[in-house]
Structure formats: C-alpha cells, structure tokens
C-alpha cells in the first residue's frame, strides 16, 4: 500500500446515515463515535449506514441513496431492514451501533487499500422517465414540454415577491434528507430561493423517546433521571440547529458534553452564551408563528413557546415539592421555540439536582410530560407535519429550514425505547 493510501485510510470515515424507525439512538452513537464523520449528503460519503427499520415504500429511495455514494462504497446495516440480495456478499450487518462504527472504520481502510471491492449498484442505469423519441423537440411534447431524463423543461411563472417571470424549480426532498425528519417526503417548488409551494407527501416516522418516560407511566422513577433525559433531548435538538446554521464545531462539542450531562450544569457551560444569543438572530428566527386556529395542535415546548402554560408536571405533587413552575415564551417564533428548549433544559438540570438531593420520584398516577408534550395513551403526541405548508410558503430557503428545525413534527412511537 502506498503512503498516500495509508494516510487516506487513517482519516475519519465519511458516512451518510439513513435513519428508520427506532434509529435515533444509533444515530446518537455514530455522532459521537471517534473516526466517524457524518455527512449531510450521500455524495460526500464513502459509507452508508442504515439505522433502524425502513418502511417498504421507502426502499426504492434507500436504493437510490445507496447508489449516490461514490464507489468504491460500503454499506452497514443496524436494525430490521432487510439487506438487498445484491449486497449479501459485501454489506455488513452490525449487532450494536458501537459495532457498526468499528466495522465502518475497518472496512473503510480495506476500501482505500483495495482489499474490499465495495457494494455494487442497486438501481438500473437508465433514465427515470422514458423520453427518447417521444414527441417533438427535446424528447417531449414540443420544445418547451417533455421530461428529458425525468426533469421537466422550465416553464416561467410569476414570482411571489415582485411578479417577475421566473423559472420555478420543482423537486422532491426526503424521505432521508438531513433537512427533514426521517421518513418525511415533501414536494417543493422554489421561485429563486423563495418557497412557492410545500406539500407533505409522506409523514415522518414516529419518533422514539428515551425509555425512562415510558417507564414513568408504569412505575415511579427518579425525577433526576427524567429531567436529565429531558435536558439531553432538548440540547441534542439544539445541536442540530447549531449545525444547520454552520456552527458545526459548537454542535459537535455540545453533543459530546451532553453525553456526560450532570445535574446542576448550566447550558452556558456547554456552549458559550454568545453563541446562544447569535443563534436567536439567524435567518428565520422571527418566522414560523403558528396561527391561532392551529395553535391547539402544538404541544409541549412548542405550545409553551407561544405562551400556553400547559405542562403535566404541574399536576405531580413530587414536582410541586421541588418548586416546579412551567417556563413560557411570548412570541411563538423559531427563536422562541429554541429559547424554550434552552430554558427547559436549564430548568431540567436544576430540577435534577434538587430531585437527586431529595431522592424524589414521580407518581405514575399523574400524567407524564415528555420532551414533546403530554405522554398519555388517551392523547399521545401526534404528527403535526401538515402545519408546515402555511408556515413555509413565502419564506426564503434558509428561513424555511429554520422553521422546520424549530418544530417537533413526528408522532411518538408507542412503547418505544431510546437511550
């Protein structure tokens, strides 16, 4: 092996994660795994990691993503998703997320050295839509019609802002885009960088909560454990927002420190206060206000960020003995929802410290407040992705991504267990 290949083989593995049902905890492991760099596009990766279970309707999309990873490539599978027969001789099935990370490092070195041929393509090498010889002009119905290579010819439309004629861009995003919740597919139309239309084609996969919140429905658990899990959940969501806004180094640092979170810590110990302040002023921070007729659909921190002081912890005497009162914001914007996550994380860490001293336990006879809202069999947190379209149309792309990143859209996976 040449020195150049040895040097390349020692570099972190660029890996693109495909997150299915119950794959969140495995993703958290990979985010912290040494020698692994998660990419935001399969085209920047050399390895694909399939985490959890992918629904059957999304398997074709999974195959397309697999083939977008430049060769020689490898794929690693953790969960119940069946490995395509074409990959039986090359793909790797991991028993744990930690094993997946180690296997990824090993096979990457073999790819670089040439000792591993890598995965074959899963999709046929043909246009996504028939067009050759059909109609006039560019393989369509006249010079301005048709879909050569599956892409429609541009047709001008009036721009939303000033009425000028622009060529709109129609495309589909998802179900495994890092900009959307796993499983969610959206059909989007852009006028320049402005969202002209947004249609949810498939809803996101239900999200898996930390197991302690489901346990608290059945038996008393230490409130310190509940609140540490709540703080960790909100701070991990904020790490995603930091990364979305280009603050990748701070996002990585926050994830690393959240893995060792302790009662009584302050969020300013994890990330400088100046970074939090700058986050609340990014593009779209003042957007995403849910109108009053849809406000009732919001739950948990999103509702409290719009000054709705509903929190199931208020009904638990154990929390009352710790001096708990709901934290709220006023504006209901993206920045308000991010600030709500931050304030609730800080409050949770303080509650965890007080509960640890008092050995306080929750009461299963009272409702449990999860990081996404009331966790009850009669009224579980449900999918809210249908609220997006009116919030996003008319926003610039960066503003729209901030709005999506400020909302917990998926439903809760019943009986799910996370880390």
How would you sum up this structure, described in words?
The protein has 419 residues and is of the alpha/beta class. The chain has 3 domains: 3-113, Rossmann fold (3-Layer(aba) Sandwich); 156-202, no CATH class; 211-405, no CATH class. 35% of the residues lie in helices and 13% in strands. The chain contains 15 helices and 12 strands. It has helices at 3-9, 24-32, 59-68, 97-113, 211-218, 223-244, 248-258, 267-270, 273-279, 292-295, 300-304, 317-320, 334-358, 388-392, 397-405; strands at 13-19, 36-38, 47-51, 74-78, 92-93, 157-158, 165-166, 169-173, 185-191, 194-202, 368-370, 373-375. Strands 2-1-3-4-5 form a 5-stranded parallel sheet, covered by helices on one side. The chain has a 3-stranded antiparallel sheet with strand order 8-9-10. A two-stranded antiparallel sheet has the order 6-7. Strand 3 (47-51), helix 3 and strand 4 (74-78) form a beta-alpha-beta unit. Helix 1 (3-9) packs antiparallel against helix 4 (97-113), helix 2 (24-32) crosses helix 4 (97-113) and helix 6 (223-244) runs antiparallel to helix 13 (334-358). It starts with a helix and ends in a 14-residue tail after the last helix. The model is unreliable at 138-143 (pLDDT under 50).
């Amino acid at each position: 092996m040449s020195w150049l290949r040895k040097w390349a083989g020692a570099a972190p593995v660029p890996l693109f994660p495909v997150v299915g049902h119950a794959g969140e905890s495995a993703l958290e492991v990979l985010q912290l795994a040494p020698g692994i760099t998660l990419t935001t596009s399969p085209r920047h990766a050399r390895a694909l990691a399939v985490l959890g279970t992918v629904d059957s309707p999304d398997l074709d999309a999974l195959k397309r993503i697999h083939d977008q990873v430049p060769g020689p490539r490898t794929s690693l599978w953790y969960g119940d998703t069946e490995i395509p027969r074409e990959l039986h001789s090359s793909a790797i099935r991991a028993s744990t997320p930690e094993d997946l990370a180690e296997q990824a490092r090993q096979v990457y070195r073999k790819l670089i050295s040439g000792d591993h041929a890598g995965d074959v393509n899963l999709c046929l090498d043909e246009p996504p839509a028939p067009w050759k010889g059909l109609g006039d002009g560019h393989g369509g119905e006249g010079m301005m019609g048709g879909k050569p290579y599956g892409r429609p010819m541009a047709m001008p439309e009036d721009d939303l802002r000033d009425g000028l004629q622009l060529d709109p861009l129609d495309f589909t995003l998802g179900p495994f885009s890092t900009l959307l919740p796993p499983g969610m597919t959206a059909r989007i139309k852009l006028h320049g960088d402005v969202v002209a239309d947004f249609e949810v084609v498939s809803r996101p996969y239900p999200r898996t909560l930390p197991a302690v919140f489901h346990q608290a429905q059945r038996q008393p658990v230490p409130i310190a454990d509940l609140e540490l899990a709540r703080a960790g959940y909100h701070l991990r969501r904020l790490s995603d927002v930091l990364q979305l806004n280009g603050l990748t180094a701070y996002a990585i640092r926050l994830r690393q420190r959240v893995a060792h979170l302790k009662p009584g810590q302050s969020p300013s110990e994890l990330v400088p206060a100046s970074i939090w302040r700058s986050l609340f002023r990014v593009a779209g921070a003042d957007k995403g206000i849910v109108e009053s007729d849809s406000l009732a659909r919001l739950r948990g921190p999103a509702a409290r960020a719009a000054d709705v002081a509903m929190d199931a912890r208020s009904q638990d005497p154990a929390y009352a003995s710790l001096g708990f009162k709901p934290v709220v914001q006023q504006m209901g914007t993206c920045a308000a929802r991010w600030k709500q996550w931050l304030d609730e994380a800080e409050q949770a860490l303080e509650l965890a410290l007080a509960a640890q001293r008092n050995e306080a336990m929750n009461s299963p006879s009272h409702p449990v407040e999860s990081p996404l809202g009331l966790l009850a069999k009669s009224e579980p947190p449900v999918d809210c992705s249908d609220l997006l379209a009116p919030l996003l149309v008319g926003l610039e792309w960066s503003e729209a991504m901030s709005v999506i990143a400020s909302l917990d859209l998926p439903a809760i996976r019943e009986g799910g267990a996370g880390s």
